[in-house]
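>> Question from a student workshop board

For tomorrow's exercise we were told to take the sequence and the ligand below, predict the bound structure, and bring the output to class. My setup keeps failing. Could a helper post the expected result so I can at least see what it should look like? The ligand is guanosine-5'-monophosphate.
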Amino acid sequence: MSDIGEEPSVRVLISEAEITSRLQELAREISRDYEDKDLVLVCVLKGSMVFFADLARKITVPLRFDYICVDSYGDNTESGEEIELRTDLSESVAGRHVLVVEDIVDTGRTMGYLFDLLEGRGAASLAVVALLDKPARRKREVEIAYRGFEVPDEFVVGYGLDYRQQYRNLPYIGALESSSPLG
Ligand code: 5GP
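>> Workshop helper replied:
Here is what the output should look like for this input. Compare the format with yours to find the bug.
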């Protein structure tokens, strides 16, 4: 933690209990909508890992796991214009119902990129579940089929989300204070 200078403090925005109860609702909707469908849950690494693991265990229909890793931010908090595919899915999605599990939709560029990438692969359907939606900074329209919470235009951390690779293990969603990572 020595490279970030003054230690920012974290103000709780969404508590662990609120996350748990919202995930239960999302999982119920997803389980209903994907009953009798060949479902693949796609985890967008790294940020969605915690959300993915908790949500997946609340979904009651059979499903497969897959992972994709894209980079848009590097180690900064300003959304990059360039999206880079670091690790692709391990299995074909042809004929399957793909539900992309994303931690936060901010500018929409990452989800836009993933939709462009996956759309040509013959999936039976393609949809996104996002824990957080930060609509204030949207640059590209994204249809979010399942949304956990809307958050204000603040840099958030915790529950998988990082600031310079730290804070991912906080069990709640918080906003960074006392420093201005967005510059
Ligand atoms: P987008 O491409 O929609 O601008 O950004 C999506 C990605 O940017 C997310 O998957 C996440 O990694 C990162 N991101 C966007 N906003 C925030 C934020 O407030 N906090 C953190 N930690 N990451 C964010």
